Each structure stands twice: as structure tokens, then as C-alpha cells.
Amino acid sequence: MDFGPHLLLAILEGGVTAAVLALTAMGLSIVFGVMRVVNVAHGEFYMVGAVLAWYIATALGGNPALGFVAAIIVAPLLVGSLAAGVDRLILRRINYDPERTIVATIGTLYILQQTTLMTFGPNPRPVEPPFNTRIALPWFEWSDKGLEFYYPWGLSITSYKLFVIVAASVILITLWLAITRSKAGLIMRATQQDSDMAQAFGIPVKTVYSVVFGLGAGLAAVGAVLVVPIQQAYYLMGHDPLLLAFIVVIIGGLGSLPGTIIAAILIGMADSIISVFFTPTLAKIFATLLVATVLVFRPTGLMGKSTA
Amino acid sequence: MTKLIKPTLTRRKLLGTGAAALASTPLLGRYAQAQSSEPIKIGFQVHRTGIGASYGRWYDRTTQAAVKRINDMGGINGRPVEVISEDDGTDPKRGAEVVEKFATQHNTDIAFGTLFSHVVYGSAPRAGELKMPYFVVSEGHHVASGALNRWTMQPGITDVKSQVQAMAPFVAENLGKKVTMIYPDFAFGHDHRDYFSAAIEAQGGEVVAKIAIPPTETSFTKYFPKIPRNTDVIYHVMVGPAVLTFVKEMGEFFGPSKPEIFGFIDSLEAVDIASPGLEFLEGTYFWEGNPRYAQDTNHDFDANYRKAVGVDENGASVSDSKDVSTYAHMFGCWETLNIVKRGMEMADYKGAGDRQALIEAVESMSNMDLSDDHPQGAKIFNGKTHQTFGHQYISKVEGGKLALAHTTSIEDTMYEDEVDYTTQSF
Q1: Which H or E element spans position B324?
Q2: In chain A, which residues have their Cβ closer than 8 Å to the Cβ of B224?
């Protein structure tokens, strides 16, 4: 394949990876930003979202679009409620102590994963996309006759993959508006900046924490529902998103929304482009090096603020 | 000088200790008087979880069905067979622990099962150290290459080297000579890469690109641009939970202008060929270890086996048409257990002391005829390399099903011995 079309394909694939990664990492980032909780179970909330999407789509049957629409609404709500429950039952009782929350969320990770294994089973299961047309993409070339368009072999994307990029962008913009413009967002930001002072001003900090933890997990679930028609629902699918989401929030700056988006695009694109032109192993090496470099030169991340 | 020790135990203490010791060995008396009717224990190392779970599910069903048949026929040497299953998580480290558990905790007579080559690699050395006969139903060339030990055998399924060697002439003659290979980046995939490259070159063909994909990869479109434009044939073999995604994305990439495609059914084991997004496979070819769809030409042995393991004419479970079997591989469990039975009978196997005799008995085997014991086809076992050789099947996708297009001879699959395990000490 020629260089130009080859690069375009890599960018489109990277776009899909980045879109899902941005949603997942955003969940992790918000939870850390507001609650100072490192949620190691984040990848499992993602996995539960995908598994619930399969259950919902299978239960409804019929037109795949119906199942998908139901899944994208119901699965994140269920996962969010589950996470809010985890917050109330576990995290609140250990006073959000940083070390203990890590251990507690590791425990939650195993409980979610093994429960899924015991109920859903160890086999991957597909969810049918609501629509999935192959779109051949044109490329241009200067010739004697001027600008010419042609369709290079293999240069294509599916309508569903484009939809994933658009849907993730819309959700992230809505989230940004909600956090910066709405009263709920104001309460979240107030809690983030000084939870004691917020409490003193009558903000129900405990409720805010439960909602934020649920929102974080719900965002991971949205990412998973979007990805499950491309990949499949599988009980071990939470590992990679967790690792990549951590890489993204470290690079972007813990708790920083724009930083998370920039880092997600950087990592998603780099993973795809390096995998296409070199090897997938090199892409992982690059991501790790980037984390190390950021930690050395900007310990708070690209857009992070010092907490001191 | 030895000093006399005055017993410090009181009579009450002694009675108490003795009673406790007796209580902890409740089977002592039973074993002593009924040793010959104790079951023969087969430790079954099964991929119940992890990336091999679909195979594990069907390896388990096939094993249970084979053991039921053996017990219905009177067991082995008049003793019933009992299967003790342990999940290896499709993980080499766990695999070695499972073999150890069989030896030390369950006291099984043999260890058996497992498909994924990295688990075999991880477990075989421990089996050798424990002097535990280890019958694998893998496909890797590791047994016949001499990389393992005398306690490890693969008598019920052919290996990758012989499979690809038998396929190469068909690919070169019918599909094309410029081949791009796509395979998983671990031992099993590397066997494909090395032996198919050599085999296609022997046919005057050429591998124009080798695309290795990490076995845990979940999206594949980014790898496909590496396929050179002058490729005549795509050769694909993928394993693991993302196989359906792999094949679907391959179709989306090529669109209407695809090259010829030859796949190993591993890329779609336990997946319905008629799944949405797989329509582009129509007219492409697959290697099958055993044809998934019942063919018109099938013999009764296949029908009997199909019935025993609960698989319908489309290769799916009789109780759930969506539960597609791993038909191309799972016959290996059935056949291996029948070979173990025959070996134990030849060696007059009585217990752990006869394990060496069992290995020697199986090593002495050669021809295995097409029968209810060997429903996949006749085989020739090579005692020196511990590897069996058999027919290979090539099927074409027609109307969303697989139709048998070509059957290779056993001779097509044979190669020079690379090891003589019989010269190694036990």
C-alpha cells in the first residue's frame, strides 16, 4: 500500500482507539481528580459494561439497532449504580485512605472478574453492530491531467467505526459542558478543590463521591458498549484498557480533562501508526517511554497542576 | 553408645494418636483388599479459562464421552476409568502446577489433555521430572522436534509441520504461489511460519510477507496494510478470543477485491461460519483436522463419534445450535484415550510402577486403523518421535458451510525423524 493511504488508514484506526481510550481514561481521571482514588477496578467496570451490552442485546433480540440503543443507555447506568454501591459499601468505610483504596479496588477487580467468569462464562461473545457498511475511501494524486481521485486497495473504514469516533466526541463534549457550565459540575469542582470547605458550605460530599465514582465507571462502560460490536465481550478484556487508561492519565496529568483527551489521542494514534509502520511491540515501548519521559520532565503530567 | 529412651507417652495419649492416624487414612483398608478394582485415574489438564476456553469446553465434553464409552466397554484391564480435571487457565505456569498436582495430590496414573503449545512447553519438563506419562493433544511440532522428553507423547493428533507440508502442494497448485502469512506470535504460530515457508518454497512458491500478531491482540485492521499488493494467497491462522474479529476485519479490509484465501480452521474454531460479517469467506478454503460438517461421503465411525460427543451435522452441540464445536481438534482427545487404553492393556498396567511400561507399549505402536477408536482416519504412529501422522482435510466454504474438497494421504504428511526418544533413559 502507498504511504499516503497507508497513513490515513492508520490514523482512522488510531482515531477509533483514541476515542474509546479517551472515554475510559476520562472516567479514571475524574475519579482521581475529585476523590483522589486510584481505581484499579476501572478496567473491570469496562468489561462489565461490555458483558451487560451482550446480555441486553441478546435479551431484546430482533433488530441489532434496538439492542444496541438499549445497551448504550442501560449498561452504563447499571455499571454506574454498581460502582456507586462499591463506593458506599467499601471505599467510604475505609475513609478513602489512598493505600487502602488501592487494595480495595484490586479486590473489587477480582470479585467482578470472577463473578463474570462464573456467570457469563469464559468464552468471548459478539454483539452485532447496529449498522456496519464498508466505506471505501478515495485518495488523490497529481498527474498530467491535474488532481485525480482513485480508490486505493484496502483503504476503507466501516460506518460503525466512524460512528464510534463521532459518538465518543459528542459524549466528551457534553461531559466537558456539564462539568464547566452546570451546577452539578460546579459542585464537583468545589469538592475537588477542597472537600472540607465544600462540606462546610452544605455540599453533600459523600453523595458527590458516590455519583462521581459511578460516573467514572459509567464512562468506562460507555466506551465498552461502543467497542463491543467491533471486538467481543470477554471476561479478561479489562486488562488492556486499564493499563492504557493509566498511561493516558499519567501523561495527561491526573485529574486534568484536556490533558486526558490530548494524551488519549497521542497514545491511540501512536499505538496505531507505530503498529502499522513498525511493530506492535515498538508501540508499547513508545508508550512506556513516553510515561517515563513525562514523569521525569513534568511529574504532574502534560496539563496537570501540582497538588502541593 | 545408644542410650535407652524411656517412653514418655502415656497409654491414653498413645490411643488418642493412633485413633487420629487411623481416622486420617480411611481408605487404607479398602485399598489393601481391592487394589485391582480401584479406578485408573486420568489427570485431565483442561483449558477451562483463559484464551483456550472454547477448546477446553469441547475437549472436556469429548474426554467425558470417550471415557464413558471406555467404561461402558468394561474399562481398562477390568478397572473403571476416572477423569480428574484441573483448569490450567491456558497458562504455562499453571500448567506445570497442574501436572504436579496430579502427581502429588491426586496420584493419577497419567496426565492428559491440553492444546496450547505454550502450556505444553511449560508443563512437559515437570512431567518428565515427575516421571508422569504426559499425553498431549496439542499440534505443535515440539514433541516430534525432540524439544521435550520421553514421558511426553502426541499419539492422537498430527503436528503443524506435517499439516502444513501436506497443505502446501494444494495451495501452490490451486490458489497461487505468492503467499502472505498471518499467524499468532508464539510457538504454534512460529511452527506455521517456519514449516509452511519451507514447504511452499519446495513447491516453487514464495512467502512474500510474514505478519506476526500478538495472541492477545483485539483489533487487526492496522496489520493488513502490510500485505503486499502482489499477494496471490492469504494464509491465515489465528487463535484465541479475538478470532471472529480477526476474520471479520480481514473481510472489511479487502472489500470486493480480495486475493485467494486459505485459512486454518483455528481462525474460526467454535465460531459459526454463517456469522454476520463472514460472507466474504464464500469460496475460500480451510484446513480441517476433522471435517466439521457431516459430509455425504462420511463413514459410520464419524456418525458414531458425532453422536457420542453430542455434535450435530453442522458441527454444533445437539442441545444448542449456537454452541459450535472445535471439531477439527477435539477428536484428538477421543483417539488419545483409546490409545492410552490400548497401551495400558498391552503393558498389563496395574499402577504407577508400570508407567514406564506404558510409554514403551505406546512407543511400540505403529498402524492405527480407521475405526470407532480412530474416527478421524487411519494413522501411523512413530514411536521414535512420539508423534502420529494422519490424513489432512481441506474444505471449501460453500453456502455458509464447509464442504470437503481434498483429503491428503498420510504419506504427504511424513518427514524425516528429528529425534529418537527411545534411546533416552527414563
Answers
A1: strand B320-324
A2: 154
Strand partners, A281: none
CA–CA separation, B124 and B150 (whole Å): 10
Contact A301, A256 (CB under 8 A): yes
ipTM of the complex as predicted = 0.88
Strand ranges inside B91-205, DSSP E: 110-113, 134-136, 152-153, 178-184
8 Å CB contact between B61 and B22: no
Cα distance from B160 to chain A (closest Cα, Å)? 25
Query: Across the interface, which of A121, A156, A231 has its CB nearest the CB of B218?
Result: A231
On the 0-12 / 13-18 / 19+ scale of CB atoms within 10 A, B39 is: middle
C-alpha cell at A187: 459542585
- First and final C-alpha spacing in chain A: 51
Kindly list the residues from chain A whose CB atom is less than 8 angstroms away from the CB atom of residue B254: 154
CB contact under 8 A, B255 and A17: no
End-to-end CA distance of chain B: 43
Residue of B nearest to A7 (CA): B225
The DSSP secondary-structure symbol of A166 reads H
Instruction: Cell numbers for B186, please give them.
Output: 508464539
For the cut 70, the answer to whether the pLDDT of residue B395 exceeds it is yes
**B270 contact residues in A (CB cutoff 8 A):** 123
For residue B165, give the C-alpha cell.
507440508
B316 touches chain A (CB under 8 A): no
What are B327-339's pLDDT values in tens digits? 999 999 999 999 9
What is the DSSP annotation of B352-410? GGGHHHHHHHHHT--EE-SSSS-TT--EEEETTTTEEEE--EEEEEETTEEEEEEE--S
Q: Which residues of chain B does A153 touch, with a Cβ-Cβ cutoff of 8 Å?
A: 229, 257
Residues 6+ apart with CB under 8 A from A127: A50, A53, A54, A57, A64, A67, A68, A71, A228, A229, A232, A233
Backbone φ and ψ of B107, nearest 5°: 50, 50
Q: What is the percentage of chain B residues whose pLDDT exceeds 70?
A: 92
B186 close to A (CB below 8 A): no
pLDDT at B21 over 80: no
pLDDT for the residue numbered B25 = 46
Residue B415's φ and ψ, nearest 5 degrees, are: -145, 170
What is the CA angle B299-B305-B310, rounded to 5?
A: 130
Helix, strand, coil content of chain A in percent (nearest 5)? 70, 5, 20
